[in-house]
Amino acid sequence: MRQAGRYQAAYRELARKHPSFRERSETTELIVDISLQPFRSFKPDGVILFSDILTPLPGIGVPFEIDDNKGPLLDNPIRSKEQLKQLHKLDLSQLQFVGESLKLLRQEVGDQAAVLGFVGSPWTLATYIIEGASSSLYKTIKSMAYSEPALLDALLSHLADAMADYIRFQIDSGAQCVQIFDSWGGQLPPSQWDKWSGPYLRRVIESVKSTHPSTPLTLYANGSGGLLERLGATGADVVGLDWTVDMADARRRLGSKSVQGNVDPTVLFCGEAAIEAAVRDVLSKAGGKGHILNLGHGVLVGTPEEAVAHMFALSKSIKAAELVTA
């Protein structure tokens, strides 16, 4: 899911020259170069836009910064009706670097791979907007669900409409598939997910499908073992699985829904034999159709590049018939 990054020497070298993450993720030339680094090294079937789920927030009136140690920081988190008034319709003129990058990536990649865009889910974006930073407990937003439900609904509704517009913009610019990351949806009890994440995801997906019905949408939520059936019912074309779910169980629970995943990213530290065993386990349980082989999350910092290369090589060399007879 996260292709480019610090595990690659080429990225680390570029980051030394351009130390600001905002610069790297908001400058067309750098976005294209970084997005293509894994493609040049491993020739994957998909090239993922190098960006961040928070990138569109200034376009709706929510400025933020990214600290190298603390992560995203918002000086003025939204916690009142008055603060909510600062939000406006997504201003795509502030995101032209995204559109330009997708156009260039399509030109560079041609028909060798699909170009993938991505966005954050309304709930996940709201955790940053309300908490003001990354969180491990989500106390403020979870409390708001009980103390100010109308305020939280208004924020999530605004984000849902903005992300639908952002997905359409990415598709129109060249994205052939868009991934939706409900990264912190798994932090909600299922009954609360049904109220505060699911409805807004469906709003996004239904809106996009009304104008771009043939573009695949993938939905991923970290720690979502208790939510799989709910994710499958959102209208997303593909459900991304993290590594804590057994692929065979996921297949039974999701029926004919296409899935993505779900090799444990730490296996890439464990040598070629372990990588091959993990890949074969996932592939054999997923079956020969409706499955995108992937990690259960992004490539971890420090992962050996040769291990990533080995997993890609396995993905191209292992055949479905071989798995059936194994």
UniProtKB/TrEMBL annotation:
<keyword id="KW-0627">Porphyrin biosynthesis</keyword>
<protein>
    <recommendedName>
        <fullName>uroporphyrinogen decarboxylase</fullName>
        <ecNumber>4.1.1.37</ecNumber>
    </recommendedName>
</protein>
<dbReference type="Pfam" id="PF01208">
    <property type="entry name" value="URO-D"/>
</dbReference>
<comment type="function">
    <text>Catalyzes the decarboxylation of four acetate groups of uroporphyrinogen-III to yield coproporphyrinogen-III.</text>
</comment>
<dbReference type="InterPro" id="IPR038071">
    <property type="entry name" value="UROD/MetE-like_sf"/>
</dbReference>
<feature type="domain" description="Uroporphyrinogen decarboxylase (URO-D)">
    <location>
        <begin position="116"/>
        <end position="132"/>
    </location>
</feature>
<comment type="similarity">
    <text>Belongs to the uroporphyrinogen decarboxylase family.</text>
</comment>
<dbReference type="InterPro" id="IPR006361">
    <property type="entry name" value="Uroporphyrinogen_deCO2ase_HemE"/>
</dbReference>
<comment type="pathway">
    <text>Porphyrin-containing compound metabolism; protoporphyrin-IX biosynthesis; coproporphyrinogen-III from 5-aminolevulinate: step 4/4.</text>
</comment>
<keyword id="KW-0210">Decarboxylase</keyword>
<keyword id="KW-0456">Lyase</keyword>
<dbReference type="InterPro" id="IPR000257">
    <property type="entry name" value="Uroporphyrinogen_deCOase"/>
</dbReference>
